[in-house]
Amino acid sequence: MKKIVQTLLIVFILSITASKTTFATTSDNSSYSVSPIYSEHQTEGVENFFDIRWSPALTDTFYLRITNNSDEDKAYGIEVNKARTNKNGIVDYSDNTPENSASLYKITEMVQVPKEVIILANSSQEVQGTILFPKDSFNGILMAGIHVSEKNKIDAKATISNTVAYNIPLVIRGDNDERPKPEITLNKLTIQNIDGLSVELSNKGSNLLKEVKFEAKIKDKNGKILKTQKSTIDITPETEFIYPINLDSINKQEAMTLSLKLSHGNKDEWQYTKKIPKQKKDLKVQSTSINKEGKHFLWYAIGLSATILVVIYRYKKRKESRH
Q1: 124-134: per-residue pLDDT in tens?
Q2: pLDDT of residue 281
Q3: Could you give the residue ranges of the DSSP H alpha helices within the chain?
Q4: Would you tell me how many other CB atoms lie within 10 Å of the CB of residue 7?
Q5: Where is the signal peptide (predicted)?
Q6: pLDDT at position 16, please?
Q7: CATH topology of domain 24-173
Q8: I need a surface site. Which of 25, 173, 195, 323 has the fewest CB within 10 A?
């Protein structure tokens, strides 16, 4: 009986801890490290990431130095991910969602790296990457991240508990320095949860818009301002992104309007006015229902476990009494 209880406790603890994952972009104590080796077209004075000038019809070469600090041979996965502004207003280099099919130039197709390399124990290797430039001139900016992660083995006795990954930004600057006129559109508004409004926006052009100032105002049907929110965000080229607004204790059942103003430097400005969709009356009820069902399932599982233990205990006692 004691062994059964101990076994159940071990299973319960493992079920909680097995899914724990830690992500880091750099680590001084990591079992491996990654550093860039620049191409001949690297922008002078730029360090720690790739900043490469567009060279029509040419092929450029760069390298990654991967150092395995462990006593075992290790495999590492390498990805090229388009840089995207995420809903936290941070440039994310780890999102491997495919690029928009309408994009004229796809950086994830232009930049080619091996998908996997094996580095011997306590050694370094220079991994080659290439950039295939189209023949035409280009006046925009493309951004990606070279994402490197250790590929841990998984078997019946081991799971991945910690994942350390490196993201090295890669920027390609057009050979024509006259950048296209920026274009930002507001696509739609969505009530995501009880207190959240998601504003979906698109940066249509191949422009990196740094320090764009956001000023959002939520107004009632009479024009009274219910909430004001201000932010400053870097917007990556050709990116759809979410700007979240916390509606707090505002009554989402009443008619409301969003007034949103974006300012970039002294010359670019965008203003939008859009009605906010009313929150469904049963949204909160559904959420509560789900929580209750979850609690009911938990108590059901506990009750079932207790019943099984009682049955095993009685069976054992009867067996002992017969002997």
Answers
A1: 999 999 999 99
A2: 56
A3: 2-17, 107-110, 283-322
A4: 10
A5: 1-24
A6: 31
A7: Immunoglobulin-like (2.60.40)
A8: 323
